Amino acid sequence: MTVSATPRDRAPDLPTELPDLVLRELTVDDADAYYALLDRNRQHLSRLGDYRAESRATPAWARGQLAADPAPDLRYGIRLGGELIGRVDLIAVDPPRYGTGYWLDEAHQGAGRATAACAALYGYAAHELAATDIYAGVTRGNERSVALLGRLGFERVAEFADCTRFHLALEGS
Ligand SMILES: CC(C)(COP(=O)(O)OP(=O)(O)OC[C@H]1O[C@@H](n2cnc3c(N)ncnc32)[C@H](O)[C@@H]1OP(=O)(O)O)[C@@H](O)C(=O)NCCC(=O)NCCS
Fold it and tell me: Which ligand 1 atom minimizes the distance to the CA of 41?
């Protein structure tokens, strides 16, 4: 008898409050679209020294990233009308406390899409994962990220040499 590992259930698709904007798990099936997205955002992602690995991505690197099972983290693609335009992650640092990371195609900034994507993921975390806290670290000078966290209700909780830590207390968990 052959015993094979049972593939884990796919994380559920998450709607957002914006029409046509949906979160769907990023998998190896997205490798080509993910690489194309990285390739046109190298400067955007590395402007403040973050996302160095992504800014040097090769097709094989991108495929390898998505081939790895993210569990227990959640790894979502932000999709507008089916097109991959960004990524948002929930990182199981110390459940029910989580970390997060997010980025958006530079061409899609300025329309509330990252805010809506993060709100959908953190709402899911609160209601379905009983998450109580989300933390984010922001490199100094990343004013767009600071503004996004402010819109979502995060508060500054610690200052470090190069970055600021923000915290969101979740309700409804
Ligand atoms: C951080 C990042 C995701 C923020 O993207 P963003 O486009 O500024 O954020 P949003 O998509 O939520 O859009 C907000 C803008 O849309 C506007 N907006 C329009 N409709 C909106 C709505 N319904 N809800 C919220 N904002 C809305 C806001 O007023 C804001 O406008 P502004 O750009 O003139 O200030 C993006 O800059 C990025 O990918 N940066 C590089 C990677 C990075 O730094 N990641 C974070 C590491 S900590």
Answer: 41
